[in-house]
Every structure is written in structure tokens, then in C-alpha cells.
Amino acid sequence: MFTGIVQSQAEVISVTTANKLSRLVIGVDRHLISQLQLGASIAINGVCLTVVTFDEQADEQYHIAFDVIDETLRVTTLDQVVAGDWVNMERSLKVGDEVGGHMVSGHVHFKSTLVKRDETATNTTLYFSCENPWLKYVFDKGFITINGTSLTVGKVTDTMFNVHLIPETLTRTNLGKLNVADKVNLEFDQQTMTIVNTIERMKLT
């Protein structure tokens, strides 16, 4: 489990694909690998991945490798990641950790597209496409996870929703680097999904 509070951006060192299996390698600073073990879960752009290797490099940097299967490549944006890109990284939640965002599983539901950016000197609003049946899980002021970042929804229309980003979010995550037409990973709030689905089933009985 995760909280949607991105700890750092990580540079993609390499991506190699063979036999429908992709090996993704990222570079991170030493402080981000404290007590890291093989088999640990890390969210990369909101996708829960398993650590398969990690090795110390120069300048106190570590390389962490993940294997990404074809199904994950199909349903997430990881199939578009290339060396030099920057991805959001969050270590898995530990007992006793502060939950600053909301409970996130790292299981992506939908790939959305950035359709508009509104920016001023002090405010940034991003607009993302969303379609049925997924749009029914998005509510004004509800939770949503975008590229692994826990955010509060602003407004919802029939075809999209927006989020308002503070400067800290723009700095800490890769959302500030998004351009119109870029794809992102969405994970909808599981509690909201459960409530909506339960009400729908009750209406059918």
C-alpha cells in the first residue's frame, strides 16, 4: 500500500524489452534506499512494481531495477517511458507512517490524457480527460491519484476533471513537466468505487 505522497522524482536510466518483458532501471539518491530489500514494492508513476536488483553507483546514487510484464505495459503509461524521463517514486507504506494523502494500491485503473493547462504566476490547474464508466468515480473534492500523486479533484464535467497544484507538488512530482496530450496513470479511490458500485447493485435489486 501507498499514500500517494511522492517522495522523489527518479531518472530513468534504461528500458530494455524482450519477450514481452521490460526491464526498467531508475537512478535514486542513497537516502531513498534505506532498508530496501529485494522483493520490496515501490510505486513508479503510480504503478506498484517489485524490486529485482539494486546496486550502488558513483556519487552515492543507486540504480534500482524492476521487471514490468506485458499486462502492466498494456494498462499503464510505462510502455512509453524512455531513458532520460523522470518518474514519480514512492516507497511502500510502513506501519506507523503518517498517511498524508489517501490509501493507494498502486493498481492503475485508467490512462488519461492532459487536455489543458491553466497557469498563472501562483496557480496551476491541469485538466484531464475521463470517460465512462470511470467518470462515475470522480467527484468534486474527492480523492484521485495521478501518476502516483494523491490529489483533490477540483471540478468535474461530462468529459474531464481538473486538479489544482501547489508549487511544492509541481517541484516534487513530474506533473509539472506534463505537456498537453501527455498520458498519465489514474487510480480512483477504492472506497469511492465500492460505494458507487454498491449503490448501483442496490438499484438493480
Description:
- The chain is globular.
- The protein has 205 residues and is mainly beta.
- Strand 9 and strand 10 (149-156) form a beta hairpin.
- The strands form two sheets. Strands 1-2-5-4-3-6 form a six-stranded antiparallel β-barrel. A six-stranded antiparallel barrel has the order 7-8-11-10-9-12.
- It is built from three helices and twelve strands; from the N terminus they run βββββαββββββαβα.
- The protein has helices at 70-75, 167-172, 190-204, and strands spanning 8-18, 21-29, 41-44, 47-56, 61-69, 86-91, 110-119, 124-129, 143-146, 149-156, 160-165, 183-188.
- It folds into two domains: 8-91, Elongation Factor Tu (Ef-tu), domain 3; 110-204, Elongation Factor Tu (Ef-tu), domain 3, CATH 2.40.30.20.
- The model has no long low-confidence stretch (mean pLDDT 94).
In which order are the strands of the major sheet placed?
1-2-5-4-3-6
User: What is the β-strand count?
Assistant: 12
What's the CATH architecture name of the largest domain?
Answer: Beta Barrel
**Proportion of helical residues:** 10-25%
List segments where confidence is low: pLDDT < 50 over at least 5 consecutive residues: none
Structural class: mainly beta
Which percent range describes the beta-strand content? 35-45%
Largest sheet: 6 strands, antiparallel, barrel
Cα distance spanning the termini: 34 Å
Q: In one word, what is the shape? A: globular
CATH class of the largest domain: Mainly Beta
Count the domains.
2
Summary, kept brief:
By secondary structure, this protein is mainly beta.
